[in-house]
Amino acid sequence: MKRYDSFVMGHISIDENIYQGEAVKEIGGAVFYSSCASHSIGNKIGILTKLSRKDREYLEAFNVPKEDITALDSRNTTSIRNIYHSADRERRTCTALSVADPFTINDIPDNIDSQIYHFAGLISGEFNNEMIKYLHNKGKVALDVQGFLRTVGENKEMVFKDWEKKKEYLPCIDYLKTDAAEAEIMTGTKDRKKAAEMLFGWGAKEIMITHNKEVLIYNGKKHYACPLKPRNLSGRTGRGDTCFSAYITERLNKGIKEALLFAAALVSLKMEKPGPFKGTRDEVEDYIKKFY
User: What is the pLDDT of residue 88?
Assistant: First the structure.
């Protein structure tokens, strides 16, 4: 039996990021940014992903040991073009160039036991919803709603639509992550604190809402907030994935306030450099001393 702190599931993505007219091809995907960050700070991480056999070389980009990566064959590898329209990289147009095969309960290895099962999806339909209920009985479920709201529309441009079955599945989710825009789509309110309260009311136990200035956590009793303090935004891609995965693994042995501070500092440091976070716990602690 393989035992993990967090078992991260999702499609790796071949990203084409276009910023200020310059195109850069990068390995991306929530599963990539999430697993690299949590592994770097000392957690035992397992991965489940799908990609085309011809693209298996991209698995080398992970910093997690090969024996902890379950990579299943897919007809296609997910590939997304991101065109950033603003200097702060908050506004972007995303186009799905190709999409990998979805995950089902049968794809989950029998020989794993994890404290957290992390749904790190990119596009609606990536996961069979029943996986949430199935894994809810095995450990804590962490879920990023991006993988349930972001839909491939006309011309393959991605649009966000509400998760129709949210009230059925939110009670199975221990850690729910949205950004400010996704929270508004799900709840109808721009007020992030109110949105978090509504999501809690529908059953999610601990809600993270990310924003370009701060990260908010709500646990049904109290709102917690921590600012982001990056000195530049060259590593903006993967912000939410990194922050969420750092937070949920810190929560295994820390309270909300401590885990949130550590995650906010880690992602601030990550945003200063392109690519996933591959730094150390000591570097994050130093960042906290300097800037928090």
Answer: 65
Query: Residue 48: which residues within 8 A CB-CB, separation 6 or more?
Result: 7, 8, 9, 10, 31, 70, 72, 103, 107, 108, 109
> Which of 103-117 are b and which e, b meaning 16 or more Cβ less than 10 Å from the residue's Cβ?
beeebbeeebebbbb
Task: Map residue 25 onto helix, strand or coil.
Answer: strand
Domains of the chain: 2-205 (3.40.1190.20)
Quote the Cα angle for 120-125-126, to 5°: 35
**Dihedral sign (CA 189, 260, 63, 18):** positive
pLDDT, tens digit (0-9, with 9 covering 90-100), for 218-274: 999 999 999 999 999 888 889 999 999 999 999 999 999 999 999 999 999 999 999
Helices marked H in 24-79: 30-40
Structure tokens at 228: 């982001």
Q: What is the pLDDT of residue 92?
A: 76
User: Strands, DSSP E only, in the chain?
Assistant: 2-9, 13-19, 22-28, 45-51, 69-73, 78-84, 92-98, 112-119, 140-144, 150-152, 158-160, 175-179, 206-210, 214-218, 223-227
- Give the helix/strand (H/E) hosting 10: none
Which whole-number Å values give the CA distances from 7 to 34, 118, 213, 236, in the listed order? Answer: 10, 6, 29, 24
Residue 250 structure tokens: 């810190």
